Amino acid sequence: MLQRIQSLFLLLAAAAMLVASATPLAFFMYNGDKVIFEAMGVYINKTLNDSTWGLFVLGMVSSILSLITVFLYKQRMLQIRLSVFNILLMIGFYLYFGFILYKLFPVESLGFQKVGVGIIMPVIALILTILAIRNIGADEALIRSLNRLRK
Q1: pTM of this prediction?
Q2: HSE (CB half, 13 Å, CA atoms) of 28?
Q3: Residue ranges of the domains in the chain?
Q4: Looking at per-residue confidence, does 128 or 2 come out higher?
Q5: Are 31 and 110 within 8 A, CB to CB?
Q6: Cα dihedral angle (107, 109, 114, 116), rounded to 10 degrees?
Q7: Checking DSSP bridges between strand 41-44 and strand 110-115, what pairing results, if any?
Q8: pLDDT at 13
Q9: Torsions phi, psi of 99, nearest 5?
Q10: In the Cβ-directed half-sphere of 114, how many Cα atoms lie within 13 Å?
Q11: What whole-number distance in Å separates Cα of residue 46 and Cα of residue 33?
Q12: What is the model's pLDDT at position 2?
């Protein structure tokens, strides 16, 4: 279970999505006010302006799904399917982030300051999940080839 490299990749992907859900995603200036965009909400001058709990839910579901996938090591095809679904959740995280940003603030009056750690983590989790899928597929191919030799 935890001896396989894909288990390590999936655990690191779960940790990355957990970090994405808990840390600031981006920092902006909007009409002279400091805006901090987190997965739980948009804070203007350190007061909650809008709740973005959907991003938090997407990040947590992705993290939990990665953890569940680690323990399904006997069902490799299910692991691959759940990992592909998890990749779709990570892409959805970015799409929802962009949608919220576009919906809440007019782009022409929004001044970007810096990227938070949280916005980079889903990309890292995405890469780790792809690496896990490749290794799970390699395990499945090895098992199938050994089954052919037994027959």
Answers
A1: 0.89
A2: 20
A3: 5-140
A4: 128
A5: no
A6: -60
A7: unpaired
A8: 97
A9: -65, -45
A10: 3
A11: 10
A12: 65
Site of tokens 């052919």: 148
Q: Quick one: which of 62, 31, 55, 56 has its CA closest to 45?
A: 31
Closest CA to 122 of 41, 52, 51, 39: 39
Tell me, rounded to whole angstroms, the distance of Cα 87 from its chain centroid.
7
Alpha-carbon distance of 76 to 56, in angstroms, equals: 28
Give the lowest-confidence range in 59-68, 70-79, 97-106, 126-135. 97-106
The token pair that represents 53 in the structure block:
């709990």
User: In the predicted model, is pLDDT for residue 124 greater than 60?
Assistant: yes
- Do 115 and 26 touch, CB atoms closer than 8 A? yes
Angle at the Cα of 138 (from 133 to 142), degrees rounded to 5?
150
Closest CA to 101 of 150, 28, 14, 151: 28
Residue with tokens 């199938």: 144
Digit-coded pLDDT (tens) for 33-50 = 888 999 999 998 888 888
CB count within 10 Å of CB 102 equals 11
Q: How far is the C-alpha of 120 from the C-alpha of 133, rounded, in Å? A: 21
**Looking at domain 5-140, does it have CATH number 1.20.140?**
yes
